[in-house]
Amino acid sequence: MPLWRYEARRAGWTVFAAPLTALLVGVALALLAANGGSSRAQVGRMLLAGPEVMLPLAVGMAAVSMVARDGCRELQLSLPTRYAVTLGRRLGALALAGAVCTLLFSAVLGLTGWWTGPGPLASTLVWLPPTVWLTGLAVLVGMLGRSVVLATTVVATVWLGELLFAASIGALDWARPFFLFTTVRFGVDADWWSNRLALTGSGLLIFAVVALLLRRPHRLLTEEEV
């Protein structure tokens, strides 16, 4: 536990602020929609956008910050503890913060009658698969490019592209299983479960590639650090 607390402090305030901020943005959008005369269903979708749309982006960007802005990578590589373990603890702290915030948020929506997603047993699948997928992509690009600008650009482009071209993606049989925001955009339809499974599986595959790259952590060093 002391190591986990230490790594959480090393990760910085973004570990706790990013997930909470994402959910509050969803609440703000819902309030704006309600004040603009939107229907209850539309307001409910805005609330659901907090965990499914805003949370993955926030967690992904926070993960990029952890990977690309770690100024002690060269020191980490000289220690007995593998860098993969250290990075895993920091990402674990981020994942725990996101999970706690989102579970509490979903519980509040459920108790107040504003939850418009699937039942309680499947509610975690609203936010977990897209968060795993986008965070995995963020970490992978951050490691390969060793650039905050590149990683954030790629993540933001994918996120925004899926929002803007949701209808086109949904019309393609091969692309719809990997659409991140199915619950908000299309609801819990017949393809919802296959979409969640495809995102989870491909997201875990991305993290597997990250784990393989971390077996040669010296490749993460920039020219300045070498």
Strand content: under 5%
**What value does the average pLDDT take?**
84
SSE string = HHHHHHHHHH
Number of domains: 1
Helix content: over 70%
The gyration radius over C-alpha positions equals 18 Å
* Low-confidence region ranges: 221-226
Q: Kindly state the number of beta strands.
A: 0
Main beta sheet: none
The shape is: globular
Please report the number of helical segments: 10
**C-alpha end-to-end distance:** 32 Å
Classification by helices and strands:
mainly alpha
List keywords for this structure.
226 residues; 10 helices; mainly alpha
Task: Describe the fold and architecture.
This is ABC transporter permease. Keywords: Membrane, Transmembrane, Transmembrane helix. The chain crosses the membrane at residues 12-33, 53-72, 93-115, 121-141, 148-172, 192-214. This protein has one domain. The chain is mainly alpha-helical. The two termini are 32 Å apart. It is built from 10 helices and no strands. The longest helix has 30 residues, at 83-112.
Give a brief description:
This protein has about 230 residues and is mainly α. About 75% of the residues lie in helices and about 0% in strands.
Topology:
Layout: H1 2-11, H2 14-35, H3 40-68, H4 73-76, H5 83-112, H6 124-145, H7 148-164, H8 166-170, H9 182-186, H10 192-213
Helix pairs in contact: 1-5, 2-3, 2-5, 3-5, 3-6, 3-7, 6-7, 6-10
Protein name: ABC transporter permease
Keywords: Membrane, Transmembrane, Transmembrane helix
Transmembrane segments: 12-33, 53-72, 93-115, 121-141, 148-172, 192-214
